[in-house]
Amino acid sequence: MSVAEEPGRQPRGPVALALLAFLGVVLFAGFVALGTWQVYRLGWKRDLIARVDARVHAPPVAAPGPAEWPGVDAQSAEYRHMTLHGAFLHDKQTLVWTATDYGTGYWLLTPLQQADGSIVLVNRGFVPTDWCGIKGSCARGPTGDTSVTGLLRISESPRPFRHNDPSRDSWYTRDVTAIAAARGLSHVAPYFVDQDAAPGTRDAGKPAWPQGGLTVIAFPNNHLSYLITWYLLALMVLAAGIYVARDERRLRRGR
């Protein structure tokens, strides 16, 4: 049976066609715009990955001093390879809950006081929940003047479902401002530094604690699949529009 012979099948009216055309144009334009936005996002993400990779593998430079702190942000400084000199304040250390390839445990954040009196929080690395230094039953780390190299990180914000509780000394994010306030520290840098791994510690039979160099640098890059999806949806809308137009023309010819 031809289209013209289908019982009850009538051409759509002007209002219905206008609404369908309007909806099709809106959907087509919206999907094209979303796909084009993902094209720009793909370029931005690839540039970000290349920039961070260059920073991580660059020779370490001096960490930003107090005069430079106002300009330190993720765009300009995060993941830069830094070097610091000073003395650790082990009695002011903070344990921040985390999970790594070594299991659940803590990030060990220890303030490093530099010669000018400024303080930088150093994430010395991962320690398990039974690490002896937690209860002070063994040496907590180097004393006196110490050199540290690592990656500059931006202070972390509180998590939605796991809030830091300074009153209970319970920490889930490396929130520099909150930790400094809880430990009574002043003149503290607005960033922290993830310390590099000590040479040979990862290859030993038993890892040395704290275990540094565990910074996870991962930037999901799904923008190519997103842009393909949006452009395919735009093509599907276009194909549907062509089908409706041809169907309407056949119906009118049949009458």
Describe this structure in words.
34% of the residues lie in helices and 22% in strands. The chain has 255 residues and is an alpha+beta fold. A 5-stranded mixed β-barrel has the order 2-4-5-7-6. The radius of gyration is 29 Å and the shape is elongated. It starts with 13 loop residues before the first helix and ends with a helix.
Fill in the keyword field for this structure.
4 helices; single chain; five-stranded mixed barrel; 7 strands; elongated; alpha+beta
Task: Give a quick summary of the entry.
The chain has two domains: 3-45 and 222-254; 61-195, no CATH class. Helix content is 34%, strand content 22%. It has helices at residues 14-56, 74-77, 176-182, 223-254, and strands spanning 61-62, 81-88, 94-100, 103-113, 119-128, 146-154, 188-195.
Mean pLDDT: 85
**Biggest pleated sheet:** 5 strands, mixed, barrel
Beta-strand fraction estimate: 15-25%
What order do the helices and strands follow?
HEHEEEEEHEH
Q: How big is the Rg?
A: 29 Å
